[in-house]
Design goal:
- By secondary structure, the chain is of the alpha+beta class.
- The chain folds into five domains: 160 residues, Orthogonal Bundle (Hypothetical protein af1432), CATH 1.10.3210; 155 residues, Beta Polymerase, domain 2 (2-Layer Sandwich); 77 residues, Ubiquitin-like (UB roll) (Roll); 169 residues, no CATH class; 77 residues, ACT domain (Alpha-Beta Plaits, 2-Layer Sandwich), CATH 3.30.70.260.
- It has 29 helices and 19 strands.
- The strands form five sheets. Strands 1-2-5-4-3 form a five-stranded mixed sheet.
- Strand 6 and strand 7 form a beta hairpin.
- Helix 4 packs across helix 7 and helix 11 crosses helix 12.
- The longest helix is centred in the last third of the chain and has 32 residues.
- The relative contact order is 0.05.
C-alpha cells in the first residue's frame, strides 16, 4: 500500500541512456538551487546520496519514460521547500532504494550513517510476509510507517512529499489504478497532512484525488469556477481596494492575499448540503498577514467597521489553536452587493505554520510566543501513537484507533482548573477522562459538566467545564467501547479488559485443573520448582503451550479441556512415583447416588469470577437453579440452567466440554433474570408495577413493552437483578398482589429449532 506506484522497471537502451542522464542531471541541478540554506558539507552529502540512488535505480524508467531517479529528486525538492535538514533530503533521495533496488539497510548505514538508514527503513514497506489478507498487509505497512513517524516526524514529511509527486504524475499511470490510489490518498494521507498542519499539501492532495476519482465532475466544476472567477473579478478588486485603503488610513502595514476555495472543498460543500454551484457564496476570501499578534485583533476591529460581520461566523483560533497548531482569526463579512466574504487574520509566523504545520519547525524559527504551537501539538499526537502501540499489538486494531484520531474537527473543553483540552467532535466524558490520564479513565464513575451531573456517554461541547468523579475501586466498563471516540481511550479500555480477562482466565484455569487432577486421585498440582518441575516441562510439550501461565489461561478460556490435561498430568506424575489416592478418586468422581460425575470435579460459582465466566443469556440462571458449565472454545466457562434447551443441544453434540458447577453458599452479587407481567391497561399501571418490584428490593435493569399497540391486557417484560430463587419468588408474590396485574411469572426463552 505504501509503494510509490511508479510502475514496473523498464530497461534503458544505450541510445536513450544519454538523454536519460541529461534529464536526471538537469533535475538534480534544480534541487541544488533549492538547498542554498544548507552548508557545503551537507550539500556534498546530499550529492553523494544522489549518486548512490542514481546508481541503484540505473536502468529504471517511470511510466512517462523519464529516468526513475527524477522521482526521488522531486520528492527531495518538496522536502527542500519545507527546509528539512540534510539527513531528510538524503533519505528522500534513497527512499525507494531498499524496496525496489535490493539495497540493504546495512549498506546505507555504512555509507551514510544510522539516522539516514532509519529514515529510509521507516519509509520502506514490509517485506512480502504471508498475511491473511490484503487489508492486514495494508494495516501492517501503515503501522510500521506511523510508528517510525512517531519516533521521527521527518518520515511522514518525506512520505507526504512522495505521495504528492505521485499524485501530480498520476495521469501517467493506468486508469485502473486511479481509483485505489486516489481513495487511499483522500482517506489516509490527506487527513494525516491536515492533522500535522500541512494545509497547503492537504488541499493539494484533496484536489488531485478529486481530479482522478471523479474526472468528469472535476472538469465541470473547474469550468464553472473559471466562469465565476471572471464574473466576480470586479467585486474582488473592489473589496481588496477598500480593505487596503482602510488599513492605509490607520497606518497599519499588512499583506493582503486573495484566497479561493479548492475545487474539492466546493464539491464537498455542494454534496453535503445539497447545494447547486450558484448557491455556494463563500468561494472567495482574503488572508491578511499583520506584523504582531495584537495587530490581529486591531485589524479585526477595522474590518468590522468597514463591513458588517455575519452573526455566528467569527472564530478565534489564535487564543485557542486547532489541534494541529493552526492559528488565525476567522470572520465572515457581508461585502458589496450582499456577498459573503471570509477574512483570515494572522501573523507571519502563524501564516507559515498554517501552511506548513510541523514542517515549520525547520522552515521557520520565530521568537514569537506560541510560534512553536504546531510543533508541540503535533508532537503530542505523535506521542499518542506510541502509547496506543504499547497496548495494541494487532496491526488492524492499531490502524482502527489511528483513523479515529485523524478527524479534523475538534471541540475545546476545560478542566476545573481552566486547562484547555482539545478532543475530536463527538468525544464523550470518558474520552476526556482518558485524555487526562489512563488511571483517571479507568477509575471514572461519574461527571459534572458545568456543575451538573450527566451520564458518561454525554458528548462534550465547546466551552464545557468538565469535572470527572473517580473511585479507586472502579474499573472500565466494556460498554464504554460503544461510544468513546478517541483512539487513546479505545486502546486503553481494550488493553485493561484484556489484562483483566487474562488474569481471571488463569485463576479459573488453575481451579479447574486442580479439580480435574483431584478426580484422578492426586491431591494437588505438582510444584513449579524442584524435581516435579520436569513434569510441567513434559506437560507443556504435550499441550504445545509456551509456559504454565499460557496453559492455565487456555484451560480457563475453554481452548483446552481440563479433564484431558488432568489425565495426562496424572500419567506424568505416576512416572515419577506419585500414586493416586483411591479414597480421593471415590469422593471426587462419584456423587452421593453412586453415579459417575463429570471428570473435572465441581467448580463453585459466587459471581466474582469476572469475564472468564459468563452466565448464558438464553436461560439467565440464578442461584438456586440447577446449572451446568460449558467450556466454549475461546469463550471461557458459560453457565447454563440444567433444563436449558440450548445446553441440552450442546450436551448431545459436545458432551466432553461440559463440567460440573454449583453455586456457592453465599453469592457475592445479584444475577439478572427476566419476568413477564401481564397487566390490564390503565393510567399509572407501569409505575405501580415498577414500585412493586422495587418494594421487593430488586433492581429493574431493562423494560420491554413490545412494538404492538396496547391491548386490554398487555405483557411487559422486565429484566430484574435478584439474589437467588427465593428473592425471585418474593418479587413474583409482590407483583401478584399489585392491582391491575393479571399474572406474573419467570420468563425463559423458547427453544430454537
Amino acid at each position: 500500500m505504501m509503494s510509490t506506484e511508479a510502475g514496473p522497471v523498464e530497461p534503458v537502451t544505450a541510445e536513450s541512456g544519454s538523454a536519460a542522464a541529461s534529464a536526471a542531471a538537469a533535475s538534480f541541478a534544480a534541487l541544488l538551487s533549492k538547498i542554498d540554506y544548507l552548508g557545503p558539507t551537507d550539500v556534498e552529502n546530499i550529492r553523494q546520496a544522489y549518486r548512490f540512488a542514481d546508481e541503484a535505480h540505473l536502468g529504471q524508467l517511470r511510466k512517462n519514460g523519464d529516468p526513475y531517479i527524477t522521482h526521488p529528486i522531486a520528492v527531495a525538492a518538496q522536502c527542500a521547500e519545507w527546509k528539512l535538514d540534510a539527513q531528510a533530503l538524503m533519505a528522500a533521495l534513497m527512499h525507494d532504494a531498499i524496496e525496489d533496488c535490493g539495497v540493504t539497510k546495512q549498506e546505507i548505514v555504512e555509507r551514510f550513517g544510522a539516522p539516514v538508514a532509519e529514515l529510509v527503513d521507516g519509509l520502506t514497506k514490509l517485506e512480502r510476509l504471508e498475511f491473511t489478507s490484503r487489508e492486514q498487509n495494508q494495516a501492517e505497512s501503515f503501522r510500521k510507517m506511523l510508528l517510525a513517524m512517531a519516533k521521527d516526524v521527518r518520515v511522514i514529511l518525506i512520505k507526504l512529499a512522495d505521495r504528492t509527486h505521485n499524485m501530480r504524475t498520476m495521469g501517467d499511470m493506468p486508469r485502473d489504478k486511479w481509483h485505489r490510489i486516489s481513495s487511499e490518498t483522500l482517506e489516509i494521507y490527506a487527513p494525516i497532512a491536515h492533522r500535522l498542519g500541512l494545509n497547503f499539501t492537504y488541499r493539494e492532495l484533496q484536489d488531485l484525488s478529486f481530479r482522478f476519482l471523479h474526472p468528469w465532475r472535476y472538469e465541470v466544476l473547474a469550468r464553472a469556477l473559471e466562469k465565476a472567477r471572471g464574473r466576480r473579478r470586479d467585486l474582488i478588486a473592489r473589496v481588496q481596494h477598500e480593505v487596503e485603503d482602510a488599513f492605509a488610513r490607520h497606518s497599519m502595514p499588512v499583506r493582503i492575499l486573495g484566497r479561493e476555495k479548492t475545487l474539492y472543498s466546493v464539491y464537498r460543500k455542494m454534496d453535503s448540503k445539497h447545494l447547486s454551484f450558484a448557491q455556494v457564496t463563500d468561494i472567495y476570501g482574503f488572508r491578511i498577514v499583520v506584523p504582531e499578534l495584537t495587530d490581529c485583533y486591531t485589524a479585526l476591529g477595522l474590518l468590522h467597521q468597514l463591513y458588517k460581520p455575519l452573526p455566528g461566523k467569527f472564530r478565534d483560533y489564535v487564543a485557542i489553536p486547532k489541534v494541529n497548531g493552526y492559528q488565525s482569526l476567522h470572520t465572515t463579512l457581508v461585502g458589496p452587493f450582499g456577498t459573503n466574504i471570509e477574512f483570515q487574520l494572522r501573523t507571519h509566523s502563524m501564516d507559515v505554520v498554517a501552511e506548513s504545520g510541523v514542517a515549520a519547525h525547520w522552515l521557520y524559527k520565530a521568537n514569537e510566543p506560541g510560534s512553536d504551537t504546531s510543533q508541540r501539538l503535533g508532537t503530542q499526537w505523535l506521542q499518542s501513537l506510541l502509547d496506543i502501540q504499547q497496548e495494541t499489538h494487532d496491526a488492524s486494531e492499531f490502524w482502527d484507533h489511528i483513523k479515529i484520531d485523524l478527524f479534523p474537527d475538534a471541540v475545546y473543553v476545560f478542566t476545573p482548573k481552566s486547562k484547555i483540552l482539545s478532543l475530536p467532535r463527538g468525544a464523550t466524558v470518558v474520552d476526556f477522562a482518558y485524555a487526562i490520564h489512563s488511571d483517571v479513565g479507568h477509575r471514572t464513575v461519574g461527571v459534572r459538566i458545568n456543575g451538573e451531573q450527566h451520564p458518561l456517554r454525554t458528548e462534550l461541547n465547546n466551552g464545557d467545564v468538565v469535572e470527572v468523579i473517580t473511585d479507586d475501586k472502579a474499573e472500565p466498563n466494556p460498554a464504554w467501547l460503544s461510544f468513546v471516540k478517541t483512539g487513546r481511550a479505545r486502546s486503553k479500555i481494550r488493553h485493561h479488559l484484556k489484562a483483566v480477562a487474562q488474569d481471571k482466565a488463569i485463576e479459573l484455569g488453575e481451579r479447574m485443573l486442580r479439580q480435574a487432577i483431584r478426580s484422578e486421585g492426586i491431591a494437588r498440582l505438582p510444584d513449579e520448582e524442584g524435581e516435579q518441575s520436569a513434569v510441567w516441562d513434559k506437560l507443556l510439550r504435550f499441550t504445545g503451550n509456551k509456559n504454565r501461565v499460557e496453559l492455565l489461561s487456555d484451560i480457563g478460556m475453554g481452548r483446552r479441556i481440563a479433564g484431558m490435561v488432568g489425565k495426562k498430568l496424572a500419567v506424568l506424575l505416576g512416572e515419577i512415583g506419585v500414586k493416586p489416592d483411591a479414597v480421593l478418586i471415590s469422593r471426587e468422581r462419584y456423587n452421593a447416588t453412586g453415579e459417575e460425575s463429570m471428570a473435572q470435579g465441581v467448580v463453585t460459582l459466587d459471581g466474582s469470577e469476572g469475564v472468564s465466566v459468563q452466565y448464558a443469556s438464553c436461560c439467565k440462571p440464578i442461584p438456586g437453579d440447577k446449572i451446568v458449565g460449558y467450556l466454549g472454545r475461546g469463550e471461557g466457562l458459560v453457565v447454563h440452567a440444567e433444563d436449558c434447551p440450548t445446553a441440552r443441544r450442546l450436551m448431545a453434540r459436545d458432551a466432553e466440554r461440559f463440567i460440573e458447577v454449583e453455586w456457592a453458599d453465599e453469592p457475592v452479587r445479584s444475577f439478572e433474570t427476566d419476568v413477564i407481567v401481564t397487566v390490564t391497561n390503565g393510567k399509572g399501571v407501569l409505575a405501580r408495577v415498577a414500585l412493586s418490584i422495587a418494594s421487593a428490593e430488586a433492581d429493574i435493569t431493562h423494560v420491554n413493552m413490545g412494538d404492538e399497540p396496547a391491548q386490554t391486557a398487555t405483557d411487559i417484560r422486565f429484566s430484574v437483578a435478584v439474589r437467588d430463587r427465593q428473592h425471585l419468588a418474593d418479587v413474583l408474590r409482590s407483583l401478584k398482589r399489585t392491582p391491575s396485574v393479571v399474572k406474573a411469572q419467570r420468563f425463559k426463552a423458547a427453544p430454537r429449532n
